[in-house]
Predict the 3D structure of the following.
Amino acid sequence: MFYYRRMRFPQGKVKALTLSYDDDTIHDLRFAEIINRYGIKCTFNLNFGRFSDGVQHLSAMTLQQAKDLLMDSPHEVAVHGYTHMPLRDVPCNVANQDVSTDVAAAEKAFGRIVRGMAYANGSFNEETGSVLAHCGIEYCRTVRATRSFALPKNWLYLDPTCHHKDPELFSLAEKFLNDTPKGDPYLFYLWGHAYEFNNDNNWDLLERFCQTVGNREDVWYATNIEIFDYIRDYNRLIFSFDGSWVHNPTAQEIFFSVGERAGTYNYAVKPGETVFIDRTLPEKKG
Ligand SMILES: [Zn+2]
């Protein structure tokens, strides 16, 4: 039997939303308060060399404020360069030192493994990705808007859907909600800086975006690293040659659909489980 096989997000969902916000300013506090009300998750990209020393200067958070905000939250702590260094024009050893110092400081401060990053000023060159990989970074976000919901291909140069100032923001949100993906599931990846809402005096834009896309049953709200891990785990599923057996060697339940063009059947495989696809009672969809 020839059939198409497609990844589905947790609970069989076909849409996921993730946010990525940079620069550890005090405006992250109001930002988090808003997105939390809509069940939306964000990855916060922090510069561990630029926290305020307690006397508020500019608008940097103190490390303690960042810990209070993120330690027990559903959000992800990621790095953004210890000194916010644009990495395009610096030698690899300098880039390595800036990033590895940041990762080490992040892991020490939060007591967790930190594997995500966003490029400061969106700046990198063709060698930067391999430098980051040597620092334990699994993905790093660029500032190149795709205006698409395609799944990332190159995680070390991870292109977002758009910035929140994109004039297409709400038309993209409507398309994301109203379209039915024909193949791979959709990922809406939004990025920005919380201080921009303060500078532009448009917190209502964030509120309106969250009202549009938040608190929905059919969307998986996840951090960047949760999506990275889920897709990697999906790709670790082991299928028999004829595609009728599947084994899940990972630590999480994985969802996918199979079917000929006319029909789609959804499957869930628990950690460690092996499933005979043809004998599993299929749940006919559509
Ligand atoms: Zn930045």
